[in-house]
Amino acid sequence: MSALPPRPNRPVYLDNQATTRCDPRVLAAMLPWFSEEYGNPHSAEHVMGQTAETAVEAARAEVAALVGADAKEIVFTSGATESNNIAIKGAARHARTMGDQRRRVITVATEHKCVLEAVADLAAEGFEPVFLPVQPDGLLDPDALRNALTEPTLLVSVMAVNNETGVVQDIPALAAITKQAGALFHTDIAQAVGKIPLDLTGWRVDLASISGHKIYGPKGVGALFVRRRPRVRIAPLFSGGGQERGLRSGTLPTPLIVGLGEACRLAGLELTEDATRIRGMRDTLFARLRAAIPDLRLNGSEAARIPGNLNLTFPTPAARLLERLPELCVSTGSACSSAAIEPSYVLRALGLDVEAASRTLRIGIGRFTSPADIDYAAAALAAAQDAATQDGAAGPATERLAEA
Length: 404
Description:
Aspartate Aminotransferase, domain 1; 2 domains; seven-stranded mixed β-sheet; three-stranded antiparallel β-sheet; globular
């Protein structure tokens, strides 16, 4: 039985789809707005309020530039969960108040939990939730969407990148199908921003949700894209002072918004470089693990996948592997549903049974991952698999790893 490699000086973090480290450059941009520049951006009567407002609008422009939108189409929120709820519930409720008779709201079985719950909640308000299946590679069949749209439909919501498998949906094609049927199209782009090029305007998307902490920005801030031409109208979720075009009342958190703006600016500058480097590390890790563990299985499309994701089913239950890997930070599924210890519904939708889903780990490689981290992860996972088999039936994985 092979021994685990020496422990690193600090935990090796490979869970970048759950959250990312706040980039030090983002933190530096934020700090003055917590202390010296503490004005309320809605206090337009004095210079400190005006200074804060200017910073907020500069950040809004950076967010818009990264996703292919106009700055006036960006509404700041607390994160993608709030943005998803505003988009889905807000669009449905506004349409109903305007006398729209359509009640069908379509989404996909592998969506983020907050989208699934938001769509399901609308059933109590007289709407018809429809949850489409995906193919074994995690992609939505365009014909399945066309068939669902034969009934009058109000809204379709399809995430751009899955938070567990990293699978990239063909949003331009799906949006075009939706628009041809006369429905609104919403996409959760929290896992896509800064990882793949985006063009919400060119893609004819109506609504899109963004989260700061997925792109090396701060937690607690996000944004909602709301198309202006043709104008998309949605009802706000709660009442207040009418900030953010009346769609999201409340005093804007200037430091967090500045951080989001800086994170988007950096992502725009470094997207191609980051993607190339991260993809190289991912491919190295996958090749070494596959050589060491022949029974390893990759879940979801290998081609239509963001650079940093691996969703892998091992021969051994994931919980047993993690027990042996206290210094390796990877996950068994979505961080947003971890309160419930149950097999991933995303993997079940791809056709994995409960037992196979329980043997699966999500690995997320990011901007601050180093080649040394990849070396440790490859050796540690292989050694943990060797140890877990106990009888050595899987073979000396770490020896094969060294030869790979």
